[in-house]
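All the exercises in this workshop are built on plain-text protein records. Sequence and backbone structure share a record, each on its own labelled line. The question running through the whole workshop is how a given chain folds. The record below serves as our worked example for the rest of this section.
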Amino acid sequence: MKRIHIIISGCVQGVVFRASTREAAITLNLTGWVKNLRDGRVEAVFEGEDGQVEIMHRWCEHGPPLARVTGVDSSEEDYMGEFMEFTILYNK
């Protein structure tokens, strides 16, 4: 099992990036979360089978059709199994 923390840069807000990320993660049986950052980037954490997490990482490099990804920073973290599903987090 694997966990990665990703920050995606570019034109990634207002282009259904979070909803598309959630849909892709659910399709891959991943858990975790995705959220917009105040600086225009998107942040996500994915947990699941190693191969599925790698597929999701590659998906984040281009995102949904209207997104324009210019950078993806990722780090592998210790798998924690702390999530029951994949959710969209909203800033307050």
